[in-house]
Write a structure and sequence with these properties.
The protein is of the alpha/beta class. It has 15 helices and seven strands. The chain folds into two domains: 62 residues, Transferase, Pyrimidine Nucleoside Phosphorylase, Chain C (Transferase, Pyrimidine Nucleoside Phosphorylase, Chain A, domain 3, Up-down Bundle); 256 residues, Nucleoside phosphorylase/phosphoribosyltransferase catalytic domain (Pyrimidine Nucleoside Phosphorylase, Chain A, domain 2, 3-Layer(aba) Sandwich), CATH 3.40.1030.10. A five-stranded mixed sheet has the order 1-4-5-6-7, sandwiched between helices. Strands 2-3 form a two-stranded parallel ribbon. A hairpin with a 2-residue loop joins strand 6 and strand 7. Helix 1 packs parallel to helix 3, helix 2 crosses helix 4 and helix 5 crosses helix 13. The longest helix has 16 residues.
């Protein structure tokens, strides 16, 4: 039991907020294994009921980053991932975007996990595609250089979160821990496209990333999904030049047709892997358009293009020219 957490718990239970430094200390105590399950659950639920602040998010991420297994990556590497938690059961979008970006010349340090709330997570579909997600950690920089992308399997890089695993499962509801992973990329990327399960969190997470030193980031939510969708309007909080700008993005902004969310509904790992392979081989449809939209946004974040339409052209060329499929082939080979 941590005596250091007791006064923090009393304050948070009374509705007070923590400074960034206080939050870093509190979550550092948790991730160092010094807190009891009751203390962890109490802090998480008190924050959830009151509403987590940007300072608390940033402090908790700092504690997580300080204890993660880091990976060397190029300075211009980008991450594309989501919080999960949208329960949509969709095809794997950010994983497909990873190969499109790699094929377009943008290095991707893809942070991800197995399915937690969805049917098929990034690690699940990559395994079905023949990628070894458990490649020895010291080899990851080499994999990233060779394939221009690498998968950073979250549980291997964030072992400190195991101390909160029990309370999280027993609580069975969203807590601050659901928001931290996408902001603690093991490669220390400063550019990222991050999908968020609720539009209420796009702005706070963008503000937190700004505090944490990110250069460019889009936090997005589209029609109930933790990614951009061609089904309608998407909410975006973009970190640009040290400040956050909020706006709406539609598929028409990228020159893409609309399609319902149901058009990208997925299945198990094998079926999602088959759909992703077909996409990289040039298959048309709503899945391709959704990937093009997200890839275009990521290219803006990476500083490669100025607008979505230009990004769609580059992303489409990476698919149609075979570079995206080749990135997958190299990743499979390098992780054998």
């Amino acid at each position: 039991m941590s005596t250091n957490l007791k006064p923090i718990l009393a304050r948070v239970a009374a509705g007070e907020t923590l400074t960034e430094a206080e939050a870093e200390d509190a979550f550092g105590t948790i991730m160092s294994g010094e807190a009891t399950p009751a203390q962890i659950a109490g802090l998480a639920m008190a924050m959830r009921v009151r509403g987590e602040t940007v300072a608390e998010l940033a402090g908790a991420v700092r504690a997580m980053r300080a204890r993660m297994h880091k990976v060397d990556a190029p300075a211009n590497a980008i991450d594309v991932c989501g919080t999960g938690g949208d329960a949509s059961g969709s095809l794997n979008v950010s994983t497909a975007v990873t190969f499109v970006l790699a094929g377009a010349g943008v290095p991707v340090a893809k942070h991800g996990n197995r399915a937690l709330s969805s049917r098929t997570g990034g690690a699940d579909v990559l395994t079905a595609l023949g990628v070894n997600v458990d490649v020895p950690l010291p080899r990851l920089p080499q994999v990233l250089r060779a394939a221009n992308c690498a998968f950073l399997f979250a549980p291997r890089h964030h072992a400190a979160l195991r101390h909160a695993a029990g309370p999280r499962v027993e609580l069975g509801t969203r807590t601050i821990f659901n928001l931290l992973g996408p902001m603690a990329n093991p490669a220390g990327v400063t550019r990222q496209l991050t999908g968020v399960f609720s539009p209420a969190w796009t702005r706070p997470m963008a503000d937190a990333l700004g505090r944490l030193g990110s250069v460019s980031a889009w936090l997005v939510h589209g029609q109930g999904l933790d990614e951009l969708t061609v089904a309608g309007e998407n909410q975006v909080a973009a970190l640009e030049n040290g400040s956050v700008r909020e706006f709406i993005v539609t598929p028409e902004d990228a020159g893409l047709p609309r399609a319902p969310v149901s058009a990208i509904r997925g299945g198990d790992a094998a079926s999602n892997a088959a759909a992703l392979t077909a996409l990289l081989q040039g298959a048309a449809g709503a899945y391709r358009d959704t990937v093009l939209l997200n890839a275009a946004a990521a290219l803006i974040v990476a500083g490669r293009v100025a607008d979505l339409r230009e990004g769609v052209k580059i992303a489409a060329a990476a698919i149609d020219g075979g570079a995206a499929l080749e990135a997958l082939a190299i990743l499979k080979r390098e992780t054998e």
